[in-house]
Amino acid sequence: MNSNGKFRSLIMRYRKWLLLILVAILLWTSIVLFLTEDYRQKRASYLNAELESFESKVYTTLRMYETFSEYVFRTAVSRDEVMTLLERAVRGDDRDRDNVRQELYRLLQDDYALMTEYDFRQLHFHRPNGDSFLRFHAPEQYGDNLFSVRETVRLANEEKRYVFGFEEGRIFNGYRFVYPLIRGEEHLGTVEVSVSLGSLMTVMGGLYPEVDLTFVIDEGVVRSTVFDDNQDNYAPAPFFPGFLLDLAIEEDRHLSGGCRLSVLDSGLIRNTVAEHRGRIDDWESFNTIVEEEQQQYLMNFLAIENISGQPVAYLVGINEIDGANIFTEGGLFRDLVLVTLLVLMLVVSTLIYDVKQKQLKRMATTDKLTGLYNRHRMVDLLEREVERHQRYGSPASVIMLDLDHFKDVNDRFGHSTGDRVLKETGLVLRETVRRQDAVARWGGEEFLILLPETGLQEAGAVANRLRQAMEEHPFFDETPVTASFGVATIADGGEGGWEAMVHKSDENLYRSKQNGRNQVTL
User: Fold this and answer.
1) Are residue 204 and residue 128 in the same domain, yes or no?
2) In which domain, by residue range, is 259 found?
3) How many domains does the chain have?
4) What are the distances in angstroms from CA 163 to CA 66, 166, 246, 420, 506?
5) Other CB atoms closer than 10 Å to residue 108's CB: what's the count?
6) Spatial separation of the C-alpha atoms in residues 442 and 498, rounded to whole Å
7) Are residues 188 and 262 in the same domain?
8) What is the pTM of this model?
């Protein structure tokens, strides 16, 4: 038998073994390829989920400060003494404005001191033309026009609407909550309440102590915006070329123990920035896993945009990862044995993440005290209703109500009783309106109700039912609590959007207050 015959005979003899080996190799190859792809996908899913979670933490903390800023505006700024002073400033000459500036500073300096205790950085008044009128953090610096460097101030003054967003200022950066100041038909300027990234990081550090945070801002933005005398508020970030550190934030971070990880003092973050320089140059929000001395870290890089949608800074979050070797090349081989366990772990982690996201979503759309929709969620519903009207011509109305003499309730009976009144008001509103109507706490003791498919007269009837329900409800100690109501319907064709409808209801509410309260005005 020649060699070819012997070879064929050998194959035939061991063909079952060869087939088994071939199947085993194919099966092993298939499993390896599957696990490799599964590993890649799980890593991407994990990173995406963690980045979304990081963004949600920032968003939730910002919404808390936004609510607080609105409280400051309504209780400290938009009161008669302040508005009267601002009227004098608008109508007077330079000498009058100097006097008003001093009187306004004296009037609000205690309020500003209290704001700073709660980590607010600025209270800043602007004239209608965009000139800085009074910076409480730097009262000696005023008169510079801000329209070219502060889009929030320009929009709030020119469009006479509330504006929120991150901006670098002449002295400090921060998230700005800018409110128009209007009395009657007269525009008196705007006021800004702002919070620094440092305050945001302090609160997040308390809520999420496992995350170490640092903030860097584009050097070009700072150099082109900040006063020359205040440029030394910043220093180059040694681990982030082209970006600066806010020294006040860094000092607070170190004093509070917010800088715990040695990774910030090592070359690891510098190397990570260099490795992902292209993504940073494109202002991409991203995250990655890095390792140092057998410890793995998750690094989240969140691009911070200003009010114009232009990214200008990065908020970097770093936390240690326990058991993260499942995302290493070595861990891939162990998956052959642990695949069942890892699938169960993935299911559990996905469920936990889903619950976490739902909780964050609920927090982002619900008023914590009353359980009603918050202002952010109601704006979404109003925009949707305007679109429906523009498409189908469907009518819609809103009812705005404000509790009468609510400040007296807080002053006489305490804030806990005031909170109880707000909760019970929410209960009365929900029980009285229809199922398809949406009820929101608009701010403070002010509530807004959206009534789809409802014309003005029908909405007025609903408002009267609500007024009567409030009047008859036993709030506490038989003390009556009433409310004043303003009703408005959507303009034909949706002209002016939801803002016009809400503004009209607010005007009608004001007339109800003027005419004696506890009444409805259409």
Assistant:
1) no
2) 198-327
3) 3
4) 11, 10, 24, 31, 18
5) 22
6) 14
7) no
8) 0.54
